[in-house]
Amino acid sequence: MKFLHTADWHIGKKLHNFDLKYEEDDAFKQIERIAEEEKVDAIIIAGDLYDRSLPSEEAVKSVNEKLKRLNLVDKHPLLIISGNHDSATRLNTGSEWFKATNLFLNTKISGAFEPVEIEETQFFLLPYFEPQEVRNYFDRQDLKNVQETMQLIVEKIKEKFKPNMKHVLVAHFFAAGSTQTDSETNVMVGGLDAIPTSYLNDFDYVALGHLHDARASQAEIIKYSGSPVKFSVSEATSQKGVWIVDTEKISPKFVPLVPVHEINVLEDSFDNLISPSVYEKYSKEDYYAIRLTDTKVIPDVINKLRNYYPKILELRRVGEIQELKAEENKERDLTDPMKLVSDFFTEVTGEKLTSNQQKWVKNALKDVNKK
């Protein structure tokens, strides 16, 4: 059989306050067309359909329309799991009767051990999980981290393997050795949440979600589909697309998506950027990250540049970028828990801890030390 692997739609996400619905809808139409052209037997969506656990009414409507289109109109079986951005409870609503239309949606650990069989392939749908959920399911409070819980999950899944069938894992996690972009929520502290790829060797293919770059994993059978839309400046040069997998030979084929609007990173002087020979090469509908090489101060520079590049996501000076890179490359001080928490909070939220939050963290750390 042949299936299409996509993930990380993040419906409802904004790009620096710019609405991305047009980009989302265009990417979806391309995915739908690819599925038809490739004559796939199923479509995998490996988590993060939504960008937040409480999506807007418009986002819910958009996801419903897309799933309805693929499943009820185009008649594709769908294999879907919840990601860390989805609300597993909300996404699970209606899953009992979805199966009647070959829409298989799993948001619970227990469902990962009930394979969906399509033709000669078993699909194991493993949603995003926290270790405590696995401890409770197996009644094993001694499990220390996500690696130990994943080992137990894989062992139980393998008990369901049928020797005459292919085995595909659909999951949403960080595989060790993969690369990240800054649009993915940082849910790791000290690398504890990285799953060793050796745990996955017994699967014929592992369809992952969570990282937004389709090239994040170089393993032949372990692939991230990446997001269908560019969600940050760090993804400006990232090629978006989907994987087409034929289970007869398991040689994943990457099919690119063409962005309707690009993210362009321009590094130049102000005078050059407003020169017709430069700005006329670019679309005003595209997005821009501008790195100014000027050393002099230019009053109201961002609004002046918006006359030529209306959708500016970032504006920095080249010297500032070098300082930021130097800061990013500094090793963390693992001996200062307060600083670790503070840095982690800033990376995730983009804000600094308030004085009250600092007090709460200090009190929590004191309690931990006492225990």
From TrEMBL:
Family membership noted in the UniProt record: Belongs to the SbcD family.
Domain annotation Nuclease SbcCD subunit D C-terminal: ranges: 261-348
Function: SbcCD cleaves DNA hairpin structures. These structures can inhibit DNA replication and are intermediates in certain DNA recombination reactions. The complex acts as a 3'->5' double strand exonuclease that can open hairpins. It also has a 5' single-strand endonuclease activity.
SUPFAM superfamilies: Metallo-dependent phosphatases
InterPro entries on file: Calcineurin-like_PHP, DNA_Repair-Maintenance_Comp, Metallo-depent_PP-like, Mre11_N, SbcD, SbcD_C
GO terms of molecular function: 3'-5' exonuclease activity; endonuclease activity
Keywords on record: DNA recombination, DNA replication, Endonuclease, Exonuclease, Hydrolase, Nuclease
Oligomeric form and interacting partners: Heterodimer of SbcC and SbcD.
GO BP, sorted A to Z: DNA recombination; DNA replication
Organism: Ligilactobacillus salivarius (strain UCC118)
Pfam families associated with the record: Metallophos, SbcD_C
Protein name: Nuclease SbcCD subunit D
Domain Calcineurin-like phosphoesterase: 1-213
UniProt lineage: Bacteria, Bacillati, Bacillota, Bacilli, Lactobacillales
